[in-house]
């Protein structure tokens, strides 16, 4: 007969080593669980003389010296180690089982359409909503855009990025007092204005709206935008005078890429050149300085695999030291202008003859839009024009920037737009397709020769304007030619750029193409028209044809519940019911299936201040009133109006009754009130078992989480109490007692504790360590709900704020998802299975839910 297997010895639940008398001595915690002395010594200590049980995660107290050796030994387990039958401690298993049951995750009632990866990649590029203002600093309202659609923003230049106050103007318009600094904007996406709210009152936050715009972009557009922002922020590429970023116009719902332009332009240099070459050396020095800076900038862009494809005087500015910069936002804006002009010209016509090409070419040059022939042919292709021209076969490369740079040099040397005589270039019938271009090139050569331009510079410029891109010099050669003119070959050699690689052309990219589709619709055009709306069988309003409502209503819907006659004071869930309490001294019962009204509990003689649901020997709803009364209501059908049990705490005229209730599945009901005490009541006989003192003002909120009772008070502190012996563990916020605003409510979920204050501030604690403090409301926060990483709050300012906790390891930041504008003060909040239930001061209850 085989021998029975040897029994397993009891082991530490942390290190999984068998207990012994020497190394792994079992020590008993106050919660009843056991772990070895060595593991207990290594447990994190959030507060002095405390630690969390590794089995049930309850915060328990050590001896005053904090040493695990002061804890009692588990004698029974030590006896088992000598050979007695093992009897494992089942506390850990039961705890984990209960945690598994409680860990059902439900989606938030507002669906997030963008991923955490998208947020992490783009959040650093988002400018704050107050960074840009559309108000004229002179006090009036400026024009929204010029005829060509070019828009620029200017700011006060105080250097404070957090308090950057910008105001917009049209390109070329200078506001007095703000002429030294400007910011250019280019639209990259559009959506419904963040000022528009659906019938539910929900509105995405500024940051969430931008993330949704980015998420809805095509991948190619998003990649191009990312490339643009990285290039613009490269300090070694002189493309702007300030860092670029993304900013949304909340009025029109347009997302812009904005960037600082330099305070000065090259117009002063051009004015000197217009003087008729009275000081030729001075003019050439000004020309060479600007031309070399432009060459260096374009070389840096080409090194990053980017070619502009279009240049113009408008996209060039100078800083206070006289160095020239290129603004990529303005290049994209000019590219949008080119597409518009080409589209207008070929509308109803076919661009299939030499004269038509010449007309388009002349139109662009006269508007300071310098685009090489090969890119012009590509634009005409994309606009649907029928072409039969050998130039259309020329590939687009960085040589396109050489052609545009040659035109910039001519523009600087002439000091004016291309004169009309250079456009006498139309070929005769039957001539070669490129003859009109060659004629124009001859006219330009004659013009430069007449202006006494140095021969070697004139030849280099004319070579850069050749029709075949391969025949043009590269930018490095142009830079050397200009350097020779100024420094007589003294200078540092520039790196040669490989012109045979793959380049991204800004003008032919997706940003210019998508910008054409952005309609700058005003708010008035999409405001919802009041009227009766259809509802479905559940009472939900159906989505109408209105753009703004469709965008928002498909995200969040709302159902209103009416039964109370006064302000709502609390909400509770349990047994398939929703319970609501009110100043009207009643408790209403609602069905969680369709939120219809089922029953009314009556019996309180004072205002009902607190309400909870407990799963005890029988399911009960417990309420407390301002007169000190505690009522237990039986919630199993059939529902009765009379309470199952009731009792009153001793109080006098100085106290304001019960303000908060909590239950911990240990047979005790906890109450907090105006007498500054927390009282533990036995549910068996309704007797007062223990009173916990320490607060200096009304105990406004109680919550149980992770084996700890948390109490919040008007004294501005949160106290932690052990559930095993009701002893005090520690105090949160004690360092600012007497200065901290009153705590009005608490919410807890797993490791997260959220504290809401009368000042409108929210503090988030994780494992009893403060991780974030943020001002969310203008006025007192009366209600807060926490579920997974979501924090939802509401209060005096009649708005519900939806925040998401984010960060690796621990929650390091709070990001706003959106808000709900309400018609009354929010007094109670509850999150349940993807729905948000809110109680209001106007006696109504609303259920918000996702329609997707």
UniProtKB/TrEMBL annotation:
This is Uncharacterized protein.
């Amino acid at each position: 007969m085989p021998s029975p297997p040897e029994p397993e010895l009891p082991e530490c639940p942390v290190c999984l080593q068998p207990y012994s008398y020497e190394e792994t001595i079992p020590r008993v915690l106050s919660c009843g669980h056991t772990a070895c002395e060595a593991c207990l010594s290594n447990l994190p200590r959030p507060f002095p003389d405390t630690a969390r049980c590794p089995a049930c995660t309850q915060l328990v107290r050590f001896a005053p010296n904090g040493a695990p050796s002061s804890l009692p030994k588990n004698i029974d387990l030590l006896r088992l180690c000598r050979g007695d039958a093992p009897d494992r401690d089942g506390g850990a298993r039961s705890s984990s089982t209960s945690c598994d049951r409680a860990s059902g995750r439900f989606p938030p009632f507002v669906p997030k359409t963008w991923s955490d990866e998208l947020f992490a990649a783009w959040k650093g590029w988002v400018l704050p909503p107050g960074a840009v203002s559309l108000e004229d600093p002179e006090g009036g309202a400026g024009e929204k855009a010029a005829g060509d659609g070019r828009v620029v923003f200017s700011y006060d230049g105080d250097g404070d990025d957090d308090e950057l106050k910008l105001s917009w103007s049209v390109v070329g318009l200078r506001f007095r007092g703000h002429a030294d600094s400007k910011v250019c904007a280019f639209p990259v996406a559009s959506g419904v204005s963040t000022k528009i709210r659906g019938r539910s009152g929900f509105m995405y936050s500024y940051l969430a709206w931008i993330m949704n715009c980015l998420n809805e972009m095509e991948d190619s557009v998003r990649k191009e935008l990312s490339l643009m922002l990285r290039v613009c922020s490269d300090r070694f590429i002189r493309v702007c005078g300030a860092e670029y970023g993304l900013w949304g116009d909340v009025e029109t719902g347009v997302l812009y890429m904005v960037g600082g332009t330099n305070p000065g332009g090259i117009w002063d240099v051009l004015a000197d050149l217009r003087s008729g070459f009275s000081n030729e050396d001075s003019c050439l020095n000004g020309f060479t300085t600007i031309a070399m800076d432009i060459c260096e900038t374009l070389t840096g862009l080409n090194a990053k695999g980017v070619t502009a494809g279009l240049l113009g005087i408008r996209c060039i500015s100078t800083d206070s030291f006289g160095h020239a910069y290129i603004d990529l936002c303005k290049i994209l804006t000019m590219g949008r202008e080119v597409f518009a002009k080409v589209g207008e010209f070929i509308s109803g016509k076919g661009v299939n003859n030499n004269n038509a090409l010449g007309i388009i070419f002349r139109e662009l040059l006269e508007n300071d839009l310098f685009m090489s022939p090969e890119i012009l042919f590509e634009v005409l292709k994309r606009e649907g024009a029928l072409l039969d021209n050998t130039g259309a076969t020329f590939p687009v490369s960085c040589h396109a920037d050489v052609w545009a740079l040659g035109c910039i040099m001519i523009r600087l040397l002439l000091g004016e737009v291309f004169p009309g005589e250079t456009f006498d270039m139309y070929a005769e019938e039957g001539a070669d397709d490129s003859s009109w271009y060659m004629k124009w090139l001859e006219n330009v050569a004659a013009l430069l020769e007449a202006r006494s331009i140095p021969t070697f510079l004139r030849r280099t410029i004319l070579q850069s304007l050749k029709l075949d891109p391969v025949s043009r010099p590269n930018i490095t050669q142009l830079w050397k030619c200009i350097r020779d003119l100024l420094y007589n070959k003294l200078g540092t050699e520039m790196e040669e750029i490989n012109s045979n690689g793959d380049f991204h052309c800004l003008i032919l990219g997706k940003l210019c193409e998508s910008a054409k589709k952005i309609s700058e619709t005003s708010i008035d055009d999409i405001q919802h028209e009041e009227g009766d709306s259809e509802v479905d069988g559940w009472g939900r309003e159906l989505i109408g044809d209105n753009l703004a409502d469709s965008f928002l209503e498909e995200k969040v819907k709302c159902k209103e519940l009416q039964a109370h006659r006064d302000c709502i004071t609390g909400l509770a869930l349990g047994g398939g019911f929703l319970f609501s309490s009110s100043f009207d001294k009643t408790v209403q019962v609602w069905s969680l299936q369709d939120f219809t009204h089922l029953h009314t509990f009556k019996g309180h003689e004072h205002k009902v201040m607190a309400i909870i649901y407990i799963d005890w020997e029988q399911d009960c709803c417990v309420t407390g009133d301002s007169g000190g009364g505690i009522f237990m209501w039986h919630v199993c059908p059939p529902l009765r109006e009379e309470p199952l049990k009731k009792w009153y705490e001793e109080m006098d005229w100085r106290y304001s009754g019960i303000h908060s209730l909590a239950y911990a599945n240990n047979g005790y009901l906890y109450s907090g009130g105006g007498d500054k005490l927390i009282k533990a009541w036995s549910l068996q006989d309704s007797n007062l078992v223990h009173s916990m003192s320490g607060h200096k003002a009304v105990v406004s909120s109680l919550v149980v989480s992770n084996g700890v009772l948390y109490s919040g008070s008007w004294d501005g502190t949160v106290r932690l109490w052990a559930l095993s012996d009701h002893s005090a563990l520690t105090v949160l916020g004690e360092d600012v007692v007497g200065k901290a605003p009153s705590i009005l409510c608490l919410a807890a979920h797993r490791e997260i504790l959220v504290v809401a204050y009368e000042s409108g501030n929210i503090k988030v604690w994780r494992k009893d360590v403060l991780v974030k403090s943020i001002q969310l409301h203008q006025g007192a926060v009366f209600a807060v709900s926490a579920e997974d990483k979501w924090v939802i709050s509401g209060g005096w300012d009649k708005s519900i704020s939806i925040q998401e906790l984010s960060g690796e390891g621990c929650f390091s930041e709070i990001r706003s998802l959106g808000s709900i504008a309400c018609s009354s003060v929010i007094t109670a909040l509850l999150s349940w299975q993807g729905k948000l239930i809110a109680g209001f001061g106007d006696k109504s209850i609303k259920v918000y839910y996702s329609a997707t």
